[in-house]
Amino acid sequence: MFYWLLKLVVLGPLLRLVFRPKVEGLRNVPRSGPVILACNHLSFSDSIFTPLIMKRKVTFVAKAEYFTGKGIKGWFSRMFFTGAGTIPVDRSGGQAAQAALDTLLRVLRQGDIAGIYPEGTRSPDGRLYRGKTGVARLALESGAPVVPVALLNTDEIQPTGTLIPAVKRVRIRIGEPLDFSRYADQKGDRFVERAITDEIMYELMALSGREYVDVYASTLKAAA
User: Fold this and answer.
1) CA-CA distance, 16 to 51, in Å (whole number)?
2) Residue 99 located in a structural domain
3) What are the distances in angstroms from CA 29 to CA 32, 118, 138, 184, 204?
4) Distance (Å, rounded) from C-alpha 16 to C-alpha 108?
5) In whole angstroms, what separates CA 44 from the centre of its chain?
6) 56/4 Cα distance (integer angstroms)
7) 208 three-class SS
8) Which CATH number do you get for residue 51?
């Protein structure tokens, strides 16, 4: 209830008025049944604008620290992520990635929409980086179609490290659903998982027009 209250009454109308989302391909998102939204990741605000433009509820996972902050900033973060339907996941342990996937798999088994960033982290420079195979495992386990969602300019609206976003029209492009049911009997095959992930990243590259780098963004950040 809180999700729809924020989206339809409290924050949603204001965000639409200020940022005037321009969306291409919204019809590509199925109206019912489980769906995986695979998004490129440019900005903190990606998790704001993606649910905003969808007609159905979208569930992302986020690190538990977003729900435990102190002070006004912590309160706002907790309120926003709770209202946005985001589920906290403890990412400190070795099973963090699996915990996130298990959470999203439950969402899909309920017939809902799960959102995921295949790159695993925000792009450090606006380019598109190699996808992690969790999105492929999610598709194989759930049987859900994968809809690629290209956020085109959220890094200009809210660059990394910026608290207050710039007032600019947000642009999003949504591709056609990708069906990987042909691999249903090959769950656990890491070569198949890599092939599926690369196909998804290719679609995101084509939709976004961003340069693709065949390196994990997390690896680049760690080196820096």
Assistant:
1) 12
2) no
3) 9, 18, 17, 21, 15
4) 27
5) 10
6) 10
7) helix
8) 3.40.1130.10
Beta strands 113-116 and 171-174, pairing class: unpaired
> What is the tally of structural domains in the chain?
1
Residue type, 20: R
Residues 188, 191, 192, 196: what is their CA dihedral angle, to the nearest 10 degrees?
Answer: 120
The residues, ordered by sequence, that sit 6+ positions from 95 with a Cβ below 8 Å of its Cβ are none
Helix and strand numbers (H, E) in the chain are 9, 10
Per-residue pLDDT of 140-182, as tens digits, reads 999 999 999 999 999 999 998 888 899 999 999 999 999 999 9
Are 77 and 86 in contact by the 8 Å Cβ rule? The answer is no
- The Cα–Cα gap between 99 and 72 comes to 29
- Residue 185: give the domain boundaries: 21-57+111-223
pLDDT at 62: 76
pLDDT, tens digit, 9 for 90 and up, residues 91-133: 555 566 788 889 899 999 999 999 999 998 899 999 999 999 9
Q: In whole angstroms, how far apart are CA 123 and each of 129, 185, 218? A: 7, 33, 9
Q: Is residue 86 part of a domain?
A: no
Q: How far is CA 199 from CA 14, 51, 130, 135, 152, in A?
A: 36, 24, 11, 11, 19
CB atoms within 10 A of CB 65: 13
Whether 183 is covered by a domain: the verdict is yes
Q: Does a structural domain hold residue 100? A: no
